[in-house]
Amino acid sequence: MNRRHRVATSLVSALAAAGLVLVGGPASSVDHAGTAPGGAGDQRAASAGQPVRRDLVGDSDSVVAISIDGMSVAAVRQLGRKQLPNLYRFMRAGASTTNARTEREMTVTLPNHTGMVTGRRIDAATGGHGVTWNDDRPTPATVQAAAGHEVASVFSAVHDAGGSTALFAAKTKFSLWQRSWPDAIDRTVIDLDNASLVDQFVGDLATERDFRFLHLSPPDAAGHAHGWMSKPYLRAVRQSDRLVGRVVKAINADPARRAGTTILLTSDHGGHGPSHDDPRLLDDYRIVFMARGSAVDRGVDLYDINPAYRDPGKRRTTYAQSRQPVRNGVVANLALDLLDVPALEGSEHDVDQDLRLTAAP
I need a surface site. Which of 244, 270, 291, 345 has the fewest CB within 10 A? Predict the structure, then answer.
């Protein structure tokens, strides 16, 4: 597969550095893109003595990570197969659990998502990424500043291996990642309109990339406005199901792309009543984790095929347990494992890259 480019200066970074926040609907989209395959980006890299992008050889040619912000397990179970046909088809087609866990310290958006892409816990004092806020504040300006030391991400690891990455997010606070790894995210799109965001994600599939992260926000927005498990909230979960269906359909439309892509799907937190920020509540810390693709067995439970991991039941669990639950923080190292890239230095979740998506032979 032909690979491409180095990154230009991001408008997202410029806005964030100026303390500006994007608001609104479809027009509120920031799209930062690099150059075309084999174009000026590769030529500049070659002339500067930098490595030009190469194929990453692993179980997958490409990994897509999808996070549905605020989607609770209770909603997935209540709505069921008839109302969430795409999510239930996703589970039947791959490996999954509806009893995964968030980070232990906090059940809020930006800290948990940063755990997903760094493979770290939150608490900086014990090796975590240090992102404890959940807004667009300009300082700390980067994940590294929050941690007090260098923090690698799935984006930077793929970039260093010669690959290409992209971020599609429905909240402006994700501009933190572009500031933190500015040379590693080849395209950043932030659009508050989720349908428009998915349109742009689908359009980007024509560009060969190794890793894409897609953040969808309808359940979280409806939960805060109307309460988790309210009628508007359940409608938002159904909307997210349709958006996931569009993504899967677009990936599967090309046989080669379908054969080479693994999709990971999880959430940053659940929710209960009007909020989700109590890390001691089961409804807040219990989430789904799903995977599908040619590198994944069909219709299997993740705990059944992973004896190194333990189904936590209803327990919250700690990081000290020898057999961890499946956490949303495994996204980074699992994606890198699928791409045949080593685990992130300093990471914790799936650092041994031993989370299996297929049963042992």
Answer: 345
Sheet hosting strand 29-32, strand order edge to edge: 29-32, 187-191, 165-169, 211-216, 62-68, 261-266, 286-293, 95-101, 300-301
All structural domains of the chain with their residue ranges:
14-21+55-338
300-301 and 95-101 as β-strands: parallel, antiparallel, unpaired?
Answer: parallel
pLDDT tens digits, one per residue of 258-267: 999 999 999 9
Fill in the amino acid letter for 94: G
Cis bond before residue 255 (omega within 30° of 0): no
Pairing of strands 300-301, 261-266: unpaired
Strands (E), 115-203: 165-169, 187-191
The model's pTM is 0.88
Tokens of 187: 């395209």
- CA angle (228, 233, 239) in 5-degree steps: 145
Across the chain, what does the average pLDDT equal?
Answer: 88
Is residue 233 within 8 A of residue 224, CB to CB? The reply is no
